[in-house]
């Protein structure tokens, strides 16, 4: 986004700072590019947030701040609220990632324990004008939830913090619990100019256009599908029944994985979806599928965007002694697909319009 801005405005007096997850930065000439931790923030995330906040100090009414916002910013740009340490925020983030909570609820928590999100960056920039250019990774495209809304305060209290505290359990740091249960800050922030420059719906429509050009019937199931990954997969497996023409089912959104029982597996919500789909299809002879996170990284330390399945996925796994159901039970879908060489490894895409899933059905006799 920063590189594109420099290219679009070559003759404008332009300066600034952006932060991206480690490995996602690109060289810029006038804009400082920093990198921070993702999906769990680190010390670099704090340094980046501090630097960005300092950039908007002392501005005037005739200054213009362009806020380039996309998913991943919640972790890459992290500034804990007073009384909360980075270690406590990291603990909270890990609990959120394992909780099964949807992304909007997780980001509501992140806003409450941040000194820069939930409109606080825009408040610091006042009286300058703020224009937010956002790439949405949020089901429903709520701009206050993208990267936890650094330039946009939520319209109201969005969720029951007491219920969330109870769900996160006894490991939740006391400082975080107390802040979540306290009355929210009253932070009036002007709405400013908000523009969504890329969305999950746009990505799905582009994919549908490509599919139709290839002679497929394209069915877009929605860009805001949520729910437990394995349950969503089982529901989508039922779609293939009765399909009589070459068809691709496309969907986006953000599913979740609630870690239960034995932990320590490697994978993300997309590889878990793909493995559950393969098991539900049980070697269906006419179905192939892909499930990926569009930023190129599905889950911490996986090193892949997601996974693919084919009619022979389960047969190949069992031939090498792998039990697919066992891998699913222990949330180890990443290692399952790695063993089959069926991970999708593309590296950083440097964009993020959330998850992308495609289920291709080629009825018998079709090439």
Description:
By secondary structure, the chain is α/β, with parallel strands linked by helices. The protein folds into two domains: 197 residues, Rossmann fold (3-Layer(aba) Sandwich), CATH 3.40.50.10180; 162 residues, MOFRL domain (glycerate kinase, domain 1), CATH 3.40.1480.10. Helix content is 34%, strand content 19%. A six-stranded mixed β-sheet has the order 6-7-11-8-9-10, with helices on both faces. Strands 3-4-5 form a three-stranded parallel β-sheet. Strands 1-2 form a two-stranded parallel ribbon.
Shape: globular
Average pLDDT: 92
CATH superfamily of the largest domain: Glycerate kinase, MOFRL-like N-terminal domain
SSE series: HEEHEHHHHEHHEHEHEHEEHHHEE
Give me the count of strands.
11
> Beta-strand percentage?
15-25%
CATH topology title of the largest domain: Rossmann fold
Low-pLDDT segments: none
Number of helices: 14
Radius of gyration: 21 Å
The total domain count is 2
Q: What does the largest sheet look like?
A: 6 strands, mixed
What's the CATH class of the largest domain, please?
Alpha Beta
Compute the separation of the termini in Å.
Answer: 40 Å
CATH architectural type of the largest domain: 3-Layer(aba) Sandwich
Considering DSSP H and I runs of 4 or more, what fraction of the residues is helical? Answer: 25-40%
Structural class: alpha/beta
């Amino acid at each position: 986004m920063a590189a594109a801005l420099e290219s679009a405005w070559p003759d404008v007096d332009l300066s600034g700072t952006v932060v991206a997850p480690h490995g996602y930065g690109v060289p810029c000439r006038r804009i400082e590019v920093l990198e921070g931790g993702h999906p769990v923030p680190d010390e670099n995330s704090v340094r980046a947030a501090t630097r960005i906040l300092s950039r908007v100090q002392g501005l005037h009414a005739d200054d213009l701040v362009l806020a380039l916002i996309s998913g991943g910013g919640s972790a890459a740009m992290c500034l804990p609220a007073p009384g909360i340490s980075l270690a406590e925020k990291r603990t909270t983030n890990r609990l959120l990632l394992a909780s099964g909570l949807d992304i909007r609820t997780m980001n509501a928590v992140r806003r409450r324990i941040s000194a820069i999100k939930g409109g606080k960056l825009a408040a610091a920039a006042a009286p300058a004008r703020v224009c937010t250019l956002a790439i949405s990774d949020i089901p429903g495209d709520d701009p206050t939830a993208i990267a936890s809304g650094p330039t946009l305060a939520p319209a109201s209290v969005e969720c029951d913090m007491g219920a969330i505290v109870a769900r996160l359990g006894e490991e939740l740091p006391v400082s975080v619990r107390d802040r979540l249960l306290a009355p929210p800050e009253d932070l009036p922030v002007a709405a400013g100019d908000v523009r969504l420059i890329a969305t999950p719906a746009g990505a799905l429509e582009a994919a549908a256009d490509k599919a139709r050009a290839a002679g497929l019937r394209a069915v877009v199931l929605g860009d805001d599908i949520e729910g437990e990954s394995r349950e969503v997969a089982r529901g989508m497996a039922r779609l293939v029944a009765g399909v009589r023409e070459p068809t691709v089912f496309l969907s986006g959104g953000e599913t979740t994985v609630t870690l239960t029982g034995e932990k320590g597996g490697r994978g993300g919500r997309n590889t878990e979806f793909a493995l559950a789909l393969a098991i539900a299809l049980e070697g269906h002879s006419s179905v192939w599928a892909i499930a990926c996170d569009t930023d190129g990284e599905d889950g911490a330390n996986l090193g892949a965007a997601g996974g693919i399945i084919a009619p022979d996925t389960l047969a190949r796994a069992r031939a090498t002694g792998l039990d697919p159901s066992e891998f699913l039970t222990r949330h180890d879908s990443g290692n399952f697909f790695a063993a089959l060489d069926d991970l999708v490894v593309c590296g950083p895409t440097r964009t993020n319009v959330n998850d992308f899933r495609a289920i291709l059905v080629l009825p018998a006799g079709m090439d």
